[in-house]
Specification:
The chain is of the alpha/beta class and 269 residues long. 57% of the residues lie in helices and 17% in strands. The chain has six helices and nine strands. The strands form two sheets. A six-stranded mixed β-sheet has the order 1-2-3-6-9-8. Strands 5-4-7 form a three-stranded mixed β-sheet, with no helix packed on it. It is elongated and about 95 Å long. It starts with a helix and ends with a helix.
Length: 269
């Protein structure tokens, strides 16, 4: 029953990405309408100028000031209109690209969240899209083997690392930010909140998941400047990692419920 209630709340929740996608969609519609209005006005005015030029030519009034003003201004008007239309199209393409990226990111989140929702056993609790005020934590799993904070990315290609154990994406779209630093900040926020609101010293297991990428086996991201070892997985290996209890942490039934209650309260804020 608890899993069903969580699922119903999740479906109703508007996420940070949902808001971004909706905003970009509205912006695309506005730019599309603007482009249509501009082209219509531009074509009509061009036709009007050409009509005046042709009419003046037919009447053989070639020496009038009005005729030469139209003749001189016509190529400049064509050039300025073309430049303006190019700028509108460039902005439209850029907005559409951002919209497609945001939509792909949301699709990636849904793939992982749906997979967890359908396959986690009943002794694990799943929380999705927890707002931190600066963005969303994509998913948190709480169960007997500990607390797992899951960050989902939509990059495709081969997901691997370089000699310095930093993320490297081959044959696909590159990372648009430092994912490891993002996970580190979100993990710190989650731990601080749970420690303050449960009275426990919570150990957070962060995971980076690429449902659209081909992740090499046993991939972990590390740094010489901290002790964070970040596992990188696809969604199919996520359950195995959660159940494996790599950190040997065991949470009691009461601890799980206390942590779950704190996260539920956070989601309701």
């Amino acid at each position: 029953m608890l899993r069903k209630t969580q699922d119903e709340q999740t479906k109703k929740k508007i996420t940070f990405l949902d808001e971004k996608i909706s905003s970009l969609h509205d912006e695309l519609n506005e730019l599309g309408n603007m482009r249509f209005a501009f082209v219509a006005f531009y074509v009509l005015t061009l036709c009007f100028i050409l009509f005046i030029i042709i009419l003046t030519f037919v009447r053989r009034a070639l020496y009038t000031t009005q005729f030469w003003i139209y003749v001189i201004c016509f190529p400049f008007y064509v050039l300025m209109g073309a430049i303006s239309l190019k700028s509108i199209n460039k902005l439209y393409r850029k907005t559409k690209e951002s919209y497609n990226i945001a939509k792909k990111e949301r699709d990636a989140e849904k793939i992982v969240q749906d997979y967890l929702r359908k396959n986690l056993t009943e002794d694990y609790k799943l929380f999705e899209n927890i707002s931190t005020g600066f963005g969303d934590i994509d998913a948190v799993v709480v169960g007997p083997t500990g607390i797992y904070m899951i960050e989902v990315k939509s990059n495709s290609g081969v997901i691997t690392s370089n000699k310095e154990k930093r993320l490297l994406i081959l044959e696909g779209n590159p990372a648009n930010k430092n994912y490891r630093e993002q996970v580190k900040k979100e993990m710190s926020q989650l731990k601080k909140y749970l420690d303050n609101n449960t009275g426990l010293n919570c150990w957070i297991n962060p995971v980076l998941v690429f449902p659209f990428g081909s992740v090499i086996k046993d991939l972990k991201l590390e740094s010489d400047f901290d002790n964070l070892v970040l596992p990188v997985l696809n969604e199919k290996d996520l359950l195995k990692y959660v159940y494996s209890n790599n950190t040997k942490v065991q949470l009691t039934y009461d601890q799980i419920n206390k942590i779950a209650k704190a996260i539920e309260d956070w989601q309701e804020k």
